[in-house]
Amino acid sequence: GTHEVLAFLRAADGTLFAATTPNGDVFRWSGPIAGVPGSAGDGAGVARLEPARPNPARTGVTLAFRLPRAGRAVLAVMDAQGRRVRALLDAHLDAGGHTLTWDRRDDAGHEVAEGLYFARLEFQGRAQACKLAVLR
Q1: pLDDT tens digits for 37-56?
Q2: Cα 71 from Cα 107, distance rounded (Å)
Q3: Does residue 29 contact residue 8 with C-beta atoms inside 8 Å?
């Protein structure tokens, strides 16, 4: 079903919880969230995932990130329940800035439903995410 996020809550360990409608479900998002103070994704020498553009999106979504050094990076789009919707990248990349575009399709090639999603970047044992709102 469709869930509208009413509130985000962050635990001291960086875990994000989203309270949603229509029936008040609470979903747990595992992994630190980029740009949240006290989250393990902050600090020098770690990868940085930029906010998605445009957001909300009716067309393709541009995802930009910076790696502090060369290494394996994994970038995926997740739904509000933390399930992978689309694997965008799993590769060894050079240090520096990188940009990808998500075409709003899942791994099977189908256009995703309107709603809230997260781009999740994993690099050297750390993960961070940014939220994406997809509109029709």
Answers
A1: 444 444 567 899 999 999 89
A2: 24
A3: no
